Structures are given as structure tokens and as C-alpha cells.
Amino acid sequence: MPVLDSTLDPASDAFRANADRMAARLAEVRAIEEKIRLNSDAKRPVFAARGQLTPRERVERLLDPDEPFLELMSLAGLGMHDDDGADNAMGGGSIAGIGVVSGRRCIVSASDSGIKGGTIPPIGLKKTLRLHEIAFENRLPLIYLVESGGANLAYQAEMFVEGGRAFANQARLSAAGIPQIAIVHGSSTAGGAYLPGLSDYVVLVRGRSKIFLAGPPLVKAAIGEDADDETLGGADMHGAVTGLGEYVAEDDAQAIEIGREIMKRVGRGSPVVGRGSDSQEPVLDTEELMGIVPADPRWPFDMKEVLARVLDGSDFFEFKPGYGHEMVCGHGAIEGHRIGVLANNGAIRPSGSLKAAQFVQLCDQAGIPLIFLQNTTGYMVGSAAEREGAVKHGSKMIQAVANARVPKFTIVIGGSFGAGNYGMCGRGFSPRFIFSWPSARTAVMGGGQAAKVMEIVARGAAARKGVEPDEEALAKQSAKIRDGIDGQSTALYSTARLWDDGIIDPRDTRRVLGLCLSIAAEGEARTMRPNTFGVARG
């Protein structure tokens, strides 16, 4: 079978410059993630004094040891709302990802109550809704580790109406036969009380769990009643009186063990799908992925260099290699899972659109998952491209990608500009998972292009008025537009807004895609027992 060649020279100055730039970008991402962990861990003495585990300790105890945990959306909300940068980063108020609990793959969502009491900003709600979407698509059970002050009321207008979608999703997940387990470590009040209420199994912690629609101050103000937390919604009350909780634990550790036991019982007959038996490591070194993307984003690179370090055996059976060469399509495998690949080597021409549309349809017909590796300035423009049918053929590609029924996975490696983001299965086209390299750039167009467009428009307006353009004002306008768009196209800006599911180390691309392919394969194989109403609590 065809093994990809490489012209990359790891000893060259260019390679070293590229690798250094990628390493610096990656270090910036990891430093912010570490700052979030430190922000939460600073409250460790408070948790210890209450006899509690910290949020990350809860996650670690819940997960099976030596199994991978794919953390998702770790930098949600960075620089947004009251999360004003690395020093105040909070990750959307939760720790979330996909791991293995009692031998079954599931989604874990833990309130990060070490930061602002686990209160939820608007982006935190979007993070929860994205987790629900992943659960539906991949038939993944959910485990909630709950201790939250609820929605951040400073942003209630941005959250209240859309928040109803989280309630509806929980009800529909239950009706779809997708189990939800809520382990309530602390407060879960007001709208948050419905999170355990809509779960299928609820584990409470004696002396710590608090579940009620209104706390003591609001009850006093509303109806004049004096009541304490335990009377209103403590673990013993809900365990013995309301039946809201199925199990009452003595502490966090016991509650987590009960949660693991529930998953063990619920998860029987659903083994974790791992690597295929014929999985092979790439022939070329994955470490070299760090030096492929040029430090200067204006320089092109060959996406086959990436494929040679990601695919099983560096084996790539290219589709129509002599036609539409800027659109690279072909068959390969990752960790034994067969895949179809679409990758960019620049702007997408009409011939590339046709080639991509046909290839997507062929893979869909054969039931082969699709991997999209993005690095494009978008669809080709100009009179020649228009006469070749740029709009017509680009629409065929978009139709094919939008309607393909097979699982789709996207990695944004370089540029993701214009409608190229759409045709290459950006967030709006609902890939199962989408991740970015630190070098990713996502926008309508590059900052320099946008600035030039607006300069041409301004000069045209001045000419129509019969006046000379103000060159100083034009220069200031161009700089503002260029800097603004360039700042809004970075990987950090994108991931903060959940345009992807996280920024990954380029060297982890194969591992992450292999894990995601396994998750999708497991979901396709899992049999659920849906009903029409979900589980009603006794």
C-alpha cells in the first residue's frame, strides 16, 4: 500500500523556527489551563476543613485508573464576562470531559466549586448544552458531580430563557435511554435543583447536600417561614421524605463509590471500544508535527506531512491525486479505525469542491467516518473561479458535508477562513468533535485582507465625492481592522467561545482522533431502550 513520503528536514532552521513557535503557543495554552487548576486548588484548605474532596479529586476518584480522560472546553469563557483573562480564568465553572467509569465510557461534568462557588456564567451554560449534544450523538451516559451556587445572576438575561434547554435535554436524554447520575456534593438550588431532579439516579452526601427551590433567606422573605438548610433540602430529608435521592453517603468518597457502583450496574454489556487489532504506528515521527506549520502563517505547507505522522503506517490511498490537487482526499486508518480524509493545501477551487463532494458521498455510502484537516483561506475568488462554477460547485461540497450521515471529526490546524470553515465541517456543521492546534486561525478573512477591502471601499467613496482620501485616517482604520480581526481569529479566542472542543498538542492528534473514533464506534454499537417520557422519580 502507498506510504507517504516526506520532504521535511527536522535539522533545518525553518523547522526549528516552526517548532519553537508552536511550542510557545502550546505553552501559553497549558499555562492558562494550569492557572485554572491553581485558582480552584487554592480553596483546598476550605474543602479539607469541611471534610470534602476538591472538585478535581472527585473527578480523579470517579474515573478508572490508567484510562484516558479527554478533557473538553477547558478554556471556555476565557476573557469573557467576569473571566477577564488568565489570572481570573474559570473554565466556564466546570470540569468536563469523557472518561471511563467502571469499565464504561461516559461524560463527566463536575462543578468547579473551588472557583466562585461553581457559579455558572453564560458560556458555562453553553458548555453544558454542548455536553448534552455529545451525549446524544454518541449515546454516552452522564455523571454530574454537583456543588454549585447556580447561575451567575449578573447575567441572568443572557441565561434564563436558553437555560430551559438544559432541562429539556435532560428529560430527552432520559427518554432516549441514556443514563444520568447526579452525585450531589453540596448546594444544588433554585433552577439547579432540577439537575438532580431530572437525573435517573441521585446520590446525596449527609450534612453537605442541599437541594431546594429557595434557600432559607428567600423562604423567609416570600412566606415568612423560618427554616434551615437541612429542613428545607438536606440529604436525610430527601433520602427519607421526598425520595429525591436514591442513596445517602457519609462523605464525598463514599458517594463517588456509590456512583461507580451504579455505573457498573447500568453499564453492563457496553464494553469500551479500543484500538483496532490492525492498528499500526506511523512510519514517521509524531514529534515532527511540531515543526510542520510555518511560524509565519502566510507561508504554505503540505498537509500530507501531517497525514504521514498521524495515519496508521503512514499509509494513505489518495483519491483523484491528479485533480483538484489543493483539496487532498483519500483513505487511511487511525488506530485501526478506517477513515476518509479531507485536507486543505490552500484555497478551495471549483475542481476541489467537486472532488470533495464526490469523496464525501462515497464515504457516506460506505459508512466510513470522515476526518477534516483545515488549512484554507476559503473558496477561490476571481473571474476565472466564478466562470468555473465556484458557487455552484462549492454548494455541492457544502451539501455533501452537511448531509453526510457518518461521524465527522475536524481538526483546525492552520487557517479556517470564510466559507472554507463551513465546507470543511466547522462548528456550524456539527462535527462529532472539533479540536484546534495552537496555530489555528478562524475568521471571515484575514486581518490584512479585511483592512485592504475597507481601504478600497473608503478610497472609492472618496473618489465618488471628488475628494482626496485622508491617508492618515485610512492608515489608522486599516491598523484597527487588521489588529482587531487578527486578535479575534486566534485559537485562544476561538476556544473561549466554544468554536472548538479544545486546543490540543499537535503530537496528540492521532491519539485524540483515535479516542474520538472509538467513542463514535462504541455509540453506534450501543443499544439503548428509549421510551416516551423519561424516568419519573418515585
Report on this model:
This protein is α/β, with parallel strands linked by helices and 538 residues long. It is 42% helix and 16% strand. The protein has a seven-stranded mixed beta sheet with strand order 1-2-3-4-5-6-7, with helices on both faces. Strands 8, 9, 10, 11, 12, 13 and 14 form a seven-stranded mixed beta sheet that branches. Strand 10, helix 12 and strand 11 form a beta-alpha-beta unit. Helix 16 packs antiparallel against helix 17. The radius of gyration is 25 Å and the shape is globular.
Question: Concise description?
Answer:
The chain has 19 helices and 14 strands.
Note the topology.
Elements: H1 13-41, H2 44-49, H3 55-62, E1 70-71, E2 94-101, E3 104-111, H4 122-138, E4 142-148, H5 156-175, E5 180-188, H6 194-197, E6 201-205, H7 216-223, H8 229-233, H9 235-242, E7 247-249, H10 252-266, H11 303-307, E8 317-318, E9 327-334, E10 337-344, H12 350-366, E11 370-376, H13 383-387, H14 390-403, E12 408-417, H15 420-423, E13 433-436, E14 441-443, H16 447-465, H17 471-487, H18 491-496, H19 509-525
Parallel strand pairs: 3-4, 4-5, 5-6, 6-7, 10-11, 11-12, 12-13, 12-14
Antiparallel strand pairs: 1-2, 2-3, 8-9, 9-10
Helix pairs in contact: 4-5, 12-14, 16-17
